[in-house]
Amino acid sequence: MRNTTVSTKDKSNALLNVQDAKGWYEYEPSYDGVITHINTTGARLFGFASSDDVIGRKINELYAHPFDHEKTLSMLFRDGQAMGFYTLMKTRNGKLFFIKQSSSLITEGLYKCPLKVKSEFEPVESAITV
C-alpha cells in the first residue's frame, strides 16, 4: 500500500489561496446562532460569493459537526473566550477544511448578559494522508 500526501489546497478548487484567507463573523449567542456579520474573504472561504449570502444563515451550517458549535459555546460561557481552538468546517458545497478560531463573548450590563459572539478565524494548511 502506498501513502500519498495531498494538500487541502490541491484537493479543493473552492478554497483557492486558502492559506491567505482570514475572516471574522459575529452571531447571536443561541443554540441556533444566526450570523450577523462576516467579511468578504470569510464568505469566500466558506464558498459564498459575498458576505450577503452568508448573513442570516445559522452558524451550525458552517460546522462539519454541529456539536462543535455547542462545545465552542460551552467554552465561551465558562471562560468568556476560546483562543486557538481548531474546528473542522465545511463550505457551501460540503468540502471540509480546518480553521483556527479565537472567539469571545460580547456581554452587556451589570449582569453580563450575552449579546453576541465574535470570532476571528484563519484556515489551517493541513495535509491528508490517503
Question: Please, could you describe this protein's structure?
Answer:
- This protein is α+β, with helices and mostly antiparallel strands and 130 residues long.
- The protein has a single domain, classed as Beta-Lactamase, CATH 3.30.450.
- The chain is 18% helix and 38% strand.
- The chain is built from 3 helices and 7 strands.
- It has a 5-stranded antiparallel β-sheet with strand order 3-2-6-5-4. Strands 1-7 form a two-stranded antiparallel sheet.
- It is globular and about 40 Å long.
- Mean pLDDT is 78; it is low at 1-19.
Structural class: alpha+beta
Shape: globular
* Number of beta-strand segments: 7
Radius of gyration: 15 Å
Q: What helical percentage do the residues reach?
A: 10-25%
- Give, in order, the helices and strands: EHEEHHEEEE
CATH topology: Beta-Lactamase
Count the DSSP helices: 3
Strand content bin? 35-45%
Mean pLDDT: 78
At the first level of CATH, the class is Alpha Beta
Cα end-to-end separation: 10 Å
Highlighted features:
5-stranded antiparallel β-sheet; Beta-Lactamase; globular; 130 residues; 7 strands; single chain; two-stranded antiparallel sheet; alpha+beta
Would you summarize the structure shown here?
Helices cover 18% and strands 38% of the residues. With 130 residues, the protein is of the alpha+beta class. The protein has a five-stranded antiparallel sheet.
Topology at a glance:
Layout: E1 5-7, H1 8-11, E2 23-27, E3 35-38, H2 40-45, H3 67-79, E4 81-90, E5 96-108, E6 113-123, E7 127-129
Antiparallel strand pairs: 1-7, 2-3, 2-6, 4-5, 5-6
